[in-house]
């Protein structure tokens, strides 16, 4: 991942303004610690903080076409750049081997429509000095972050993170995924319009081999790298499939020739957590070089303020899951790894969250998956990107490959419905697609392991510890006045109130608050899905255990929250979590 900051139509073009933009760009340097670039043309500035993944030696940004009349600053990866180069109408001369340089040349030939041909994760700002026009665009799902803001002088700002906008923009908003902004019209336009976007119910038959092959293609194209890489492996279905496919296809790739044929995998959790055990088992089965990282509840609590600053959210689920990922990313980067593959997106596409057990029919099931995919840029994509980019680590997500989504979302949703009595658990069609008796991808019990949300899988005591910690900082009196203190997205729990306080210290603007989604949820559902079960409205909590009657370790029907004193398993002995928690050393 990289960091981009663009200011266009700026009234002040003095040296002091250039210095100010360099200063603001430094706020994004954690995303791209390898090099900084700044281009100025008249009243426009394009700044870039680079994380070098492809062509580390010469791929510094901004990037240009041959004549340098078209300039682009990009955050992301263009996986089909070689194909795009071959299909150009005329030969082009390239300054670098960067996959992103192709955007400048493609724009020269096609104009704004070039964005339709890009296969990858990206956000970019492109300046055409021939007529002083510009465009900005974001990938279809919003894997990479982008914000748009406006200055008092009429300038338009774009940034990978809003921390570079909070002081100099009068207002700013999330740049919506799948959109392009053109200075010629001054408007945003949706360019990504797949068949599933409208919510129409698909009817294509389920073809397990087609699904398998499309996912394998998605993983293989993301092995494009000139730096050391690995896979985040929690031992759940999604990350295990990513690791299995990557391990199987790594040999013979350019990456294997550079860095060796053995895949590196990484896992994080509290001591004795479900993820550590399952991740270790999958790694042993696949023969990967596995790295385990443990953290304590106290270490997670100590990192909360920094986590919220980096992920720029006060959403409870996002913070719960971002914290262990943030801690793990730091350790991974310390090993010299700069890119990882991760399993985000599968649950949204296949209805993998446990609350999907209660979907009343295939129509509701499908519409909920559509809502979840459309919101990914505010939740899991935001977490995966910003929690890793905080330490200069890039996360790639093969389940959110455009072609794979189109195929998976064209399948009749009746095939995705969960029917436990028939042995069809969540994400059954994905599991079945990789259930190969002759050449198994994974052990059966891993392939059919029940869904664990990342914030649960790292250890149940993590969430319980967060709730207890918040209760120590937020009083009942504060909760009574919450609607007056925070009238927008009023926090419903002490945990949410505590996160909101930390967020407001860094991002006090109303427009910053509005970048974070709100509303009730149970086990990560949208508000609309709560109506599927009457009991859920009394047990609003994003943990998978809140899906009463679905999770093997669900909360008791009569409790609205877990017991106040969290319990941690330590071997065969159960003990109460004390205020002073012993530090567990990180093991690699």
From TrEMBL:
Per UniProt, residues of the Glutamine amidotransferase type-2 domain are 2-186
Q: Write out the entry's keywords from A to Z.
A: Amino-acid biosynthesis, Asparagine biosynthesis, ATP-binding, Glutamine amidotransferase, Ligase, Nucleotide-binding
Q: Which reaction does it catalyse?
A: L-aspartate + L-glutamine + ATP + H2O = L-asparagine + L-glutamate + AMP + diphosphate + H(+)
- Superkingdom is Eukaryota
Annotated residues for binding of L-glutamine:
99
Q: Name one GO cellular component term.
A: cytosol
EC numbers listed for it are 6.3.5.4
**Flavoprotein: is it a keyword of this entry?**
no
Q: Which InterPro entries match?
A: Asn_synth_AEB, Asn_synthase, Asn_Synthetase, AsnB_N, GATase_2_dom, Ntn_hydrolases_N, Rossmann-like_a/b/a_fold
Identify which top EC class this enzyme belongs to: ligase
Binding residue positions for ATP: 232, 268, 342-343
Does the keyword NADP belong to this entry? no
GO terms of biological process kind: asparagine biosynthetic process; response to stress
- List, in alphabetical order, the Gene Ontology terms for molecular function in this entry: asparagine synthase (glutamine-hydrolyzing) activity; ATP binding
Q: Which residues form the active site?
A: 2 (for gatase activity)
Q: Which Gene3D superfamilies match?
A: Glutamine Phosphoribosylpyrophosphate, subunit 1, domain 1, HUPs
The site (Important for beta-aspartyl-AMP intermediate formation) lies at 344
Please state the pathway this protein functions in, per its UniProt record.
Answer: Amino-acid biosynthesis; L-asparagine biosynthesis
SUPFAM superfamilies on file: Adenine nucleotide alpha hydrolases-like (SSF52402), N-terminal nucleophile aminohydrolases (Ntn hydrolases) (SSF56235)
Q: What is this protein called?
A: Asparagine synthetase [glutamine-hydrolyzing]
Instruction: Give the source species.
Output: Marchantia polymorpha subsp. ruderalis
Lineage of source species: Eukaryota, Viridiplantae, Streptophyta, Embryophyta, Marchantiophyta
